[in-house]
Amino acid sequence: MPAKTYVQTIINGEHVDLLCEPRQSLLEALRDVVGLTGTKEGCNDGNCGACTVEFDGRIVTSCLVLGVEAEGKEITTIEGVAQGSELHPIQQAFLENAALQCGICTPGFIVASKALLEQNPDPTEHEIRFWLANNLCRCTGYDKIVRAVQDAAVKMQEA
Amino acid sequence: MTQTLDYEPNMVLATKTYDVVGTRPVRHDGADKVTGRALYGADFATAGLLHGSILRSPHAHARIKSIDTSAAKALPGVAAVVTSADFGSDSDAVVDLGEGATSLKWLRDNVLASDKALYRGHAIAGVAASNPHTAEEAVGLIEVEYEVLPPVVTVEDAMADGAPILHDDLKTEELGEQTDTVSNVAQHFQHKKGDVSKGFAKADVIVEREYRAKTVHQGYIEPHNATALWNNDGRLHVWCSTQGAFTVRDAMAQLLDMPVSKIRVTPMEIGGGFGGKIPVYLEPVAALLSRKTGSAVKMVMSRADVFEASGPTCGSWSRVKIGGTSDGTITACEVELACEAGAYPGSPVGAGAMCALAAYDIENGTVDGYDVVVNKPKTAAYRAPGAPNAAFAVEQAVDELAQKLDMDPIELRLKNAAKEGTRRVDGPTFNRVGLVETLEAMRDHPHYSAPIGENQGRGVAVGFWFNIGFDSSVNLAVNADGTVILTEGSTDIGGTRASIAMQAAEVLGIPAEDVHPSVVDTDSIGFTAVTGGSRTTFATGWAAYEAAQSVKKQMIERAAAIWDVDADAVDMNRGVISSKSDPELSMTFKELAAQLGSSGGGISGTASVSPTGVGGSFAGNIVDVEVDPETGKTDVVRFTAFQDVGKAIHPSYVEGQMQGGSVQGIGWALNEEYYMNEAGGMDNSTLLDYRMPTSLDLPMIDTVIVEVANPGHPFGVRGVGEANIIPPTPAIANALQRATGTRLFETPMNPVAITAANGD
């Protein structure tokens, strides 16, 4: 077995140290080493977006980042989106707009949508669709996901 | 910014209202799924877990001459290697696991090939190791000697004289008779009504065309997965993402030759299925590896494995001949439908043939179906399996007939619409169905009369799916605080915990939020068939209704006992139990629940049902497309989905089914296909190259829920999951014809096909 590398990161606001094989992706490290299984694997080649996480302020598909590259980085996963017992307005909007069916793509969509609204608090429908085009959903046809993001944008601006 | 529209994008044409049924509560499993807490199959872990990997055939068609696993076994970290020989059985008994009778040998060979590899990606051997990377490495060390054979990957090639034969022992069943002919055609059957030659003789106009639909995949985002533990007490426990935990249990019992009572299947959350997560693939291999190692073994497919070794649904060839009189009466229709079964017999052609002409009240019709094996993965169900293939052909032919008769395509369909009492060409007579109401809603919708732009075209089509009943079980138990625990055996793919809980809540007169549903394992609930066939809200909902009726009856009896009156003198309405004669005697459901412990003990209700009052569902689309005249790129610019769902229990999730099915149909129409190379392999087995629609490819999908109650269900439910995928492919073809003047007869109708057809 290849030697492991000692990696120091901040995950969801907490300092996390982990031992990572050089061949392990960040997705694998998050799921199998740290135990944060909310980030999902759908394709392992960057095309489905189910493993989207925030990585030093931008969103990445964690299957295309190596675990060792997380050294010194700040990562937010789906487990870090809610503030304690308070759901994030995007999470609440996904629930109220029935924006999920099977739910496997939902963590990636929520992380990506959160990044969008932080950067562009009042996106057009086209801007939402463009931003989310790297996140595949096979259940919903995206209609209710787009509406949930629109709804969250309105509520976040009112707040 | 939300756009202001001059119409309601999501309409519900309700015919009856209730307190809970028809409302839109937040789903019960919602919080887990938006926080990442929900545990799907790949999230499962247990102590001492080993990881498995599978060696897959690089050849689409090859005889397996030998398998040498010694180098793999010698790799440090490898715990065990298994091949087909580890099943220890050569039984070819006929078994039925709910998807039609098939041979046990074929089921076993699809899990691990014995004598032949029949598609690229066919599993040959399994390895268990201390981590997934070591298992993958070991797979690369297994040496297999193949005799490579020529592949055949389309029904037309497979049916041709001199075609390579997949199974030397497969003999064609011809119109119910077993023949001695060895061929790739497993079965040819025919449905017949009236006399088509007489019907065509009466016709003023006849259209006859051939159509081809490409193989497509269900495309669920979660890859197949399974963890198995063959415990020291001889019991096998499986954790997996499946549409049917009991179906997995039964399949494992057959494949491993053990009693069902020794197998426990825990269904994890499932990340999409659409029919493709009914068969077992990894579960038996993980079980064999666990038996050899004594440890739990977990296996997860890669995306390429998902494409090359699971699903897909069939590609098909079809021919339609349809005739009508100048007043728009269809006098005869002849359909031939040949569907790919994949490597082993059992394509969706049977269902496709049932649905092909179901929308039309035709005096004279025939449907011929052919079940054809090809060197592709064994097809699995995919949302109304077979019906989209048939509709792509029939709904285009009907459209062309309307054009030739210079009739509005909705009016032509209305004139010939099947209704209650219509005898279908495939035999059954319809009970109450809502096709006419669906077509009228389409005709009257503002979309149908909206202006249309340059390079745009508008198309319509309809589709039918029969839906199924089958077995379901539900247990209810009343908590002291007046809430109710609901346990069920139907895995929840798209919100059925909510739709089932809401039916119990309606009967008990309590809020949906007061019922707490759980999907439980096969040791914890009565037999429940797959989540499929659009049956779950119908059949498991019915079980919830029956179980709730039992609780209601017991609550009434308990109140009567507390009040010392006759139970017949007590009633329960909207969650209040009261005496029919004495207004002083009244309690809420909560108040009585609090007294159960002190008045004789808890109350629970249970029901196992197999409802027969199944109601079929019709769906229709109006779609506007815009074609770039230079590139042939098509944009769907407006899409309205209509469906008779009987009764929408939770309209948001009904709309979600309609929207999701529509978009899968749009993908099938415009982009998706198994792109096969000369060697019979799939060239596009990634989600980049197998291009499913993204959010950017689509407009909002407007919906109209039509409610024509199914008389065979207490709330009128028909089931909504499938019919919606049927109309999009022909509706888009019909729209493209209006936009470009050219009709396309093959999916996908991509820019290459459109520019070629327009002679560029």
Descriptive overview:
The complex is a heterodimer of chains A (159) and B (760). Chain A has 159 residues and is an alpha+beta fold. Chain A folds into two domains: 5-80, Ubiquitin-like (UB roll) (Roll); 89-158, Orthogonal Bundle (DNA polymerase, domain 1), CATH 1.10.150. Chain A has helices at residues 26-34, 89-96, 106-119, 125-131, 143-158; strands at 5-11, 14-20, 52-55, 58-61, 74-76. In chain A, strands 2-1-5-3-4 form a five-stranded mixed beta sheet, with helices on both faces. In chain A, strand 1 (5-11) and strand 2 (14-20) form a beta hairpin. In chain A, helix 2 (89-96) packs across helix 5 (143-158). Chain A is globular and about 50 Å long. Chain A starts with a strand and ends with a helix. The relative contact order of chain A is 0.15. The mean pLDDT of chain A is 97. Chain B is of the alpha+beta class and 760 residues long. Chain B is globular and about 85 Å long. Among the domains of chain B are: 1-16 and 431-465 and 615-760, Aldehyde Oxidoreductase, domain 4; 43-149 and 227-300, Aldehyde oxidase/xanthine dehydrogenase, a/b hammerhead (Aldehyde Oxidoreductase, domain 3, Alpha-Beta Complex); 472-609, Aldehyde oxidase/xanthine dehydrogenase, molybdopterin binding domain (Aldehyde Oxidoreductase, domain 4, 2-Layer Sandwich), CATH 3.30.365. Chain B has a seven-stranded mixed beta sheet, sandwiched between helices. A seven-stranded mixed beta sheet of chain B has the order 11-10-12-20-19-18-13, with helices on both faces. Chain B has a five-stranded mixed beta sheet with strand order 1-31-30-29-21. The mean pLDDT of chain B is 97. At the A-B interface, helix 2, helix 3, helix 4 and helix 5 of A face helix 1 and helix 18 of B.
